[in-house]
Amino acid sequence: IFHILHNKSKSLTLNKYPEPLKTYELSYNLFGKGIINFNHKTIKTYADTIVYRPRGIKNANYMGKARELPSENIIIFFQTESDMPKDAFSFDGRKPPNLRSLFIKADKLWNSGNPINPNNDVYYRCMSILYQIMAEISALFANQTRKYSKLNNAIEFIEKNFNNQNMNSNIGELAEMGNLSYSHFKRLFITQFGIPPKKYIINMRMEYALMLLRNHQMTISQIAEMCGYENVYYFSNACKNYFGYPPTKMK
Prior knowledge:
The protein is 41% helix and 23% strand. Strands 1, 2, 3, 4, 5, 6 and 7 form a seven-stranded antiparallel sheet that branches. The radius of gyration is 20 Å and the shape is globular. The protein is α+β, with helices and mostly antiparallel strands. The longest helix is centred in the middle third of the chain and has 28 residues, at 120-147. The protein contains eight helices and seven strands; from the N terminus they run βββββββαααααααα.
């Protein structure tokens, strides 16, 4: 464990994290509502939502903001050599019901002394609590992985072809890759990623566009085409909707 933070928000905030996370993060939302964008995924948080965020993901476009105030959460920053999931995810912290109390216990213990340099007794007790939390989460994540395994082929296809101009017209084929009806596929997708497949593809295109725009060596038209837009007008609108600025303001 590197740190345990008890975060309280009393004003509307938008936090952007341009660099890859240096540690793994587990947060428990005690109350209030928020929204997190991380690596193409949109996660909405409510009371008793647990969110996991991995470290070291480049260009993850990590942004978080409170959308109902006041809001309050506990975040555990930690490192591990274990094989951890490579993407962010969230789930209901009320299942099992002891997770909320474990986060609160770890927070009170860690911050009872010097949170920058806790003594050994505090540190090892908090590590013990983290192991309990991880054991519960591991079981929940295993069940979640089985549930959403039918999305794997579609996600792999999207990651390889998101900037193909025919991607939107072929969206129905994604469901067939998991032997699902499109309505069932879309429901699973939204539950897993917080957004429908088309929005997920747009997010990937926009993050790719941002990387190309920072390069300063290509025209807007060239970048639009490389991102899967045959029309610069549609590309510009997509950028304004996603970033709040047209591409000409981002070069």
